[in-house]
């Protein structure tokens, strides 16, 4: 992967919460609803995680298809698939963590 593509992806990834904050605030009444902002951030982050997971699974599939029976390439494809699955599990846990905390605190 080229450095320009990686840096562009990182910048876009870091800007997503700002976009969610900009969309989630009601500017005319200056009503700052923090829960609405948090939901916007987590909703945007979860959408980004889902998109990343789809890309990682497609990448792992391409690695499997192009392995041509080479055991080292198949091992690389399995690692990519495993890390994609781990990423999905972490994303689901991260998305459900605020709900768990809110339920635990009784807010």
Structure, described:
The chain is mainly alpha-helical. The chain has one domain. About 85% of the residues lie in helices and about 0% in strands. It contains 3 helices and no strands. The protein has helices at about 5-25, 35-65, 70-105. Helix 2 packs antiparallel against helix 3 (about 70-105). The longest helix has about 35 residues, at about 70-105. The N and C termini lie far apart (about 45 Å). The mean pLDDT is about 75.
* Form type: elongated
Helix residue percentage: over 70%
Helix-strand sequence: HHH
Largest sheet: none
Number of helices: 3
Mean pLDDT: 75
- Kindly provide the radius of gyration, computed on alpha-carbon positions and rounded to a whole number of angstroms: 18 Å
Q: What attributes does this structure have?
A:
mainly alpha
Which helices and strands appear, and what pairs or packs with what?
Blueprint: H1 3-24, H2 34-65, H3 71-105
Q: What is this entry, summarized?
A:
The chain is mainly α and 107 residues long. The protein is built from three helices and no strands.
